[in-house]
Amino acid sequence: MKNVSRVIAFAVVMLFGASAFADSFSGTIAADFGHDEWTLPTAPTPGITFANVHGIVVDSTGSLAVLGFLTPATVSHQLLFNNPTAFTITMGSGSEIAIFKITTLVILEDTPSHLQITGTGTISLTGYAPVKATFDLDSSDATGHYGATSSTFGIDVATVTPEPGSLILLGTGLMGFAGAIRRRLAK
Fold this sequence. Notes:
Elements: H1 2-17, E1 27-32, E2 36-38, E3 47-50, E4 54-60, E5 72-75, E6 78-80, E7 88-93, E8 96-110, E9 114-125, E10 131-140, E11 147-148, E12 151-157, H2 164-186
Antiparallel strand pairs: 1-4, 1-12, 2-3, 2-11, 3-6, 4-5, 5-7, 7-8, 8-9, 9-10, 10-12
Helix pairs in contact: 1-2
């Protein structure tokens, strides 16, 4: 009976231990890229063009705080609304680098004086596995000429949590394994 309780205790530890990912991270980061110009979604090649592909990190929290204030940031020259997956932001220098790639985007507002885009993507940070993230791009032009003197790109990384179905499957398998060992020990 002592061995059976050890197996069950091991199964419980494995079940709850598997729910904690050592390679996940969370936090927020914002980068400023200066002047940009954008087009309406009805243009032949709708998108936003960054006049300066080099920017700086202006805010970072959580695990992304290793990329401190004024850390260099580089953005792809153009973000095409109909092909966002080609767009990449690289932030950091030396041994601490974060790379964000857009997977989907939604245009919330696109007028001559304001552009606001939100969406999802994947971010990787040195030493961690890539995780899903959301982003928000905000650009305003007081003159109404589809361009801004400053555009801010914010990325929010939520803590990765396993889905309940995977945990139930893992737990069921471990309990079955414990039952098989229990039957074997009972013989």
